[in-house]
Amino acid sequence: MRSQRSGMAFIFVTLLLDVMAAGIIIPVLPTLIASFTAGNVSAAARYYGYFIAVFAAMQFLFAPILGALSDQYGRRPVLLLSLFGAGLDY
């Protein structure tokens, strides 16, 4: 029971950090993109839309794949590999 509780705590903290990181970058992203487009607000808005759409599309497309991998190899290895990939992203 103790190891299950510590495992859930690890997952909770990891997901909390992931959501906090996304919550920090999303408000800053339009300004960051605008600085790359030389202040062109139209281009910055378009690129921001692309980023958000691609993020949502990848979640939609890869959720079934990760679910199938989780069924085949177990939740723990797939979750750890996913968290490792998210850690590399940040």
A few lines on this structure:
The chain crosses the membrane at residues 7-28, 48-69. The chain is mainly α and 90 residues long.
What shape does the CA trace take? elongated
Please tell me the total number of domains.
Answer: 1
Q: How would you characterize the largest beta sheet?
A: none
Low-confidence stretches: none
Oligomeric state: single chain
How much is the average pLDDT?
86
What would you call the structural class?
Answer: mainly alpha
Task: State Rg.
Answer: 17 Å
**SSE order:** HHH
Helix-residue proportion: over 70%
Membrane topology: Multi-pass membrane protein
Subcellular location: Cell membrane
Pfam families: MFS_1 (PF07690)
Transmembrane segments: 7-28, 48-69
Q: How would you sum up this structure, described in words?
A:
By secondary structure, this protein is mainly α. The chain has one domain. Helix content is 92%, strand content 0%. It is built from three helices and no strands. The chain has helices at 2-36, 41-73, 75-89. Helix 1 (2-36) runs antiparallel to helix 2 (41-73) and helix 2 (41-73) packs antiparallel against helix 3. The mean pLDDT is 86. Keywords: Membrane, Transmembrane, Transmembrane helix, Transport. Belongs to the major facilitator superfamily. TCR/Tet family. It is a multi-pass membrane protein.
